[in-house]
Amino acid sequence: MSVTYNSGKGEVIANPVAPPLDTKKTGEEYKPVESYDLTTNGEEVSPADEYLVIRKQLKYPVDKCPNVFMSFLLGLQQYLIMFGPTFAIPVILSPSLCIDSNVIAKGQLLNTMFVMCGLSTILQIFFGTRLPIIQSGSYVYFAVAAGIMSKNPCEKEYTVVEGNKTITQDWDPNWHKRMAELQGNLMVGSVIQIILGACGLVGLLLKVIGPITITVLISLIGLCLAGVAANSASQNWGISILMVALVTLFSEYMKNVPVPLPYFTLSPLKMKVTWVKLFSTMSIIISLIIVWGLCGILTATDTFAIDDPARVVNLTQKVNQATWFYIPYPGQFGMPIVTVGGFVGMLAGVIAGVIESIGDYYACAKLSGAPPPPKYVLNRGILMEGVGCFLTGICGPGVGVTSYSENIGAIALTKVGSRMVILCSALLMVIIGLIGKIGVFFASIPEPIIGGMYLVMFGIIAAVGIANLQFVDLTSSRNVFIIGVSMYIGLVVPMWAEKALASPETATALQTGNEEFDQLVAVILTSGMIVGAVIACFLDNTIPGTDKERGMTSYKLATKACSDKELLKKIYHEPMMEWFAVRLPILRKLPFVNQ
Which residues contact 533 (CB under 8 A, 6 or more apart)? Predict the structure, then answer.
């Protein structure tokens, strides 16, 4: 998901899923404002100098640090913003792994996801772009995972032998093999991403992949997951719609309603009250608590039928089965497996993540008061993101990480761009991710509630993709043709391919006799993201059109070099890398080393 800017008007445009906290603290050092003033003496500032104006309006720019208490408080805010969409990742992934009803397994994936996101964010802050940017699981990989797993669909029942007894269950006892295939292919795909960053090949992608391709790619992620949302929400439409209604009420209608929050000061010992716009930051979590509590009441009073998926059952039992601490480790789900089709699918996801992150790097730099990142910073950021994807591959949960633009949007509203705040948020991710019972607790949420969250989040993903069209000339029949054709084919082909592969009579039409090639074809054709993006990229680069018409000039405006070398060095130079480069000047030739 991308955060984008209309540089011509100087207007910041962001798309946070859950808008961030906006507090008013009398006498406190931190007081956010509503928007940036990108003018000086009534005149608009050029895009290349906007960061200088924003830097003066920030309370804490990227290189400044609040005190420890304020850092963790603001870090908690950032954590809460990414919590809702991130905890949904293992839940969305579970149908492909055939573990929908296995709460313990989903809890393990959730714990692993948070720990890997925290570690990846720490790597990005210290050794990557050094910008205040959070790394989190990317929704790009869900369509890829579904395509990889489509060759081996889930069964309705599985037979398991326990001692002298034979029992049946509705989740695959060998789901680790499915996870191992996702992990292995992600690891190989992430190596390609590391090579892209280490060799400085990122610029080549930007020359052929523009806003039109990105629009089709990201929008199809949300649209192709419509079936997943429908399956979950349809299990109890009343509960799902209630979840959507509450999220809408809190995040949109009540986002500016302040709530009193008491707190204590130690010197002098005194209780004070601050007014916090709690609904804007925690709309998903508050809605979740209300609906989950209602489901519990309706379950206790037997209002729900005994087989209603909205019933809250065995929550205490499941939480008690989980360990207090869960430490993810390499190979915890078995030896990773690599397949040709799975690798190609994951590679498409990796490239999509790279393009998305590059746009977020420029957005985050501008909002945090940093100059546009030079090429070596982009290369270093993509390299470290590749390392983060490799970690999520080797440890789980088989979903790569990418920059999280919702948290970038938080910087725009809170006016706090300090990387120390994001570091504190990353530490919270790791600490909370190591508590096993928390993962199992949230993995026990009834399916219809998750379905309501899907309806909101997948719709936002599709809309975020469409937001990239602000750079494109939509009066051009060329652009309308490319967008319409590629997006529609990206929806139709996977629908046909899934039906064809599911039927033995028609599946032979997609088989060549070579198992690896057949899997490759199946992964590509069942992934609308890949189909639509490939068509859009091909047409956008072959049908005649100017850079302005295609929206490519907007990216060029945002990447103008900064003349303030001292500020560049202060913000972007990685100290350890600089230490080695001073002693071995030849290292400066590497495209990711401080220049």
Answer: 213, 216, 217, 220, 348, 352, 486, 490
